Amino acid sequence: MRADPGVDWSAALEWARRTLGEVGDVRRLSGGWTSTMLAVTATGREPAVLRLMTNEPWRTHGEPLTTRESEIQRMLATTAVPAPRSLALDATGEHCGHPAHLMTLLPGAIAPDRKDDASLARLAGMLASIHAVRPTIDVRSYQSWAWEAKYVVPEWASDARLWEDAFELLRGEPPAYEPCFIHRDFQPRNVLWDGDEITGVVDWVETSIGPAWLDVAHCSTNLALTHGTEIADRFADAYVTTTGRPRQPYFDVMDVVGFLPPPGRASFITDPAELTRLEERLAAVLTRCG
């Protein structure tokens, strides 16, 4: 086991032992912009994941984020959605030093390079299953990530007018929608696969009630960043075919603009090719806004 420089796991692992028993293997999981994610194995217990909200600005909001994830996972345990099960919660970080959530480790691995039609259809079907959940607990209303403070044409943009048109659109009222249960960060890096089957959906800290198309949009933007807007559209088409829900391109625009950094912060997208594909995605969805 190797700790990250500046991050002491010892208190968190001691806390996890109170639920799991004697902990053997501990390894760092890849990914996790918001958190340090540890796979923890204890004798005689199923493997677990320990989320430590170590990264700002999410650490500051770690109590509501980890609490929400725990509550949502407990609710989803009675549904067909393959989510982890919450095992223990230290939302304030009193015991772990950081807001912490202990949950089961699901089988499978992320497969962000999958872009064949069958995989896109399975992604769309899983998202439709999430949207069909009828919450049995109070779930917050969604929040836009396209804050007005982000309405600044990025310096790398090749078409400033495109971004200005997007900002003008978003200053208006969003279209009417039928509220439903949404994951809010549904995208390939939060979906686990084993062969051709989806075995899990993770990262439930942003779960909300909101427009179904915002989930479709977020997954589409992520697919566009990696594979281009054609693949993103094929996923969106698969969702429409599965559900019959209408497209709402306003939320596609909202999602693309949400990827811009707020003033004074660096973008987490640094690959010039991905930035180009983000602008291409914006151009594609703006043409559908009428």
Automatic annotation (TrEMBL):
Residue ranges occupied by any Aminoglycoside phosphotransferase domain in the UniProt entry: 25-243
This protein's record includes keyword Metal-binding: no
UniProt KW keywords: Transferase
A Gene Ontology molecular function term of the record: transferase activity
Transit peptide keyword on record: no
InterPro entries assigned to the protein according to its UniProt record, in alphabetical order: AGP_Transferase (IPR051678), Aminoglycoside_PTrfase (IPR002575), Kinase-like_dom_sf (IPR011009)
Recorded superkingdom: Bacteria
A Pfam family recorded for this sequence: APH
Protein name: Aminoglycoside phosphotransferase family protein
